[in-house]
Amino acid sequence: MIKEKAELQADECPFQAAMDLLSGKWTMSIINNLMAGTLRFKQLERAVTGINTRMLVKELKLLESKGLVHRQAYATVPPTVEYSLTERGRLLQPVIVAVQEWSVREM
Amino acid sequence: MIKEKAELQADECPFQAAMDLLSGKWTMSIINNLMAGTLRFKQLERAVTGINTRMLVKELKLLESKGLVHRQAYATVPPTVEYSLTERGRLLQPVIVAVQEWSVREM
DNA sequence: CAGGATCCCCCATGATACTG
DNA sequence: CAGTATCATGGGGGATCCTG
């Protein structure tokens, strides 16, 4: 079985694989906000400046499927859903902090 | 004058502004490779697994315009062009290192 | 409140061929 | 070698309305 080009990249280079996952327009901002702790959907939507509902839903599903974000739903009325980082997600803290510091200084 | 939404984001939030700049599919990988030192165009093209000429040219121009990469051309035959990080670009090292470490562990 | 469902569009990304 | 020029495309991203 011959591999696709994109597959090859990700396979052979963990760095590129990581960036394939993290380089979404909103990905890092979402993770950044969740670093502070658990947030509800609406809180996240307000925290991530400029994002819209559809993209937030989409990104959260992706991050959940990749095991970076944990989703906790409560059967209340109205619904309550809380998002938090998994251990794997929390391990990104050094990355977030580094970007944070660079951005404050250079942007 | 009322500002566009995208403009507001970048203005108000340095983190988001930084990610707007860095979240390209190839951006971090290019910077990562340049961390090691100066590289010629062809060397970069080989180093950044999977990229094609057009994208590399485009990214390099962007990074140059943002003051992260320095371009040095020599009037030789055939042409020689060397790319290196500026001081501002080198300040991204903590970010690169953090991604690197996470990727090796988690990807 | 937390999403689903749609419609839409532009641009990032890609492949290929060509040149000083 | 270091690009430029073209053409093509898909999906990332957005806006809006709807619902359990």
From TrEMBL, chains A, B:
<dbReference type="InterPro" id="IPR036390">
    <property type="entry name" value="WH_DNA-bd_sf"/>
</dbReference>
<protein>
    <submittedName>
        <fullName>Transcriptional regulator, HxlR family</fullName>
    </submittedName>
</protein>
<dbReference type="InterPro" id="IPR002577">
    <property type="entry name" value="HTH_HxlR"/>
</dbReference>
<dbReference type="InterPro" id="IPR036388">
    <property type="entry name" value="WH-like_DNA-bd_sf"/>
</dbReference>
<keyword id="KW-0238">DNA-binding</keyword>
<keyword id="KW-0805">Transcription regulation</keyword>
<dbReference type="GO" id="GO:0003677">
    <property type="term" value="F:DNA binding"/>
</dbReference>
<keyword id="KW-0804">Transcription</keyword>
<feature type="domain" description="HTH hxlR-type">
    <location>
        <begin position="13"/>
        <end position="107"/>
    </location>
</feature>
<dbReference type="Pfam" id="PF01638">
    <property type="entry name" value="HxlR"/>
</dbReference>
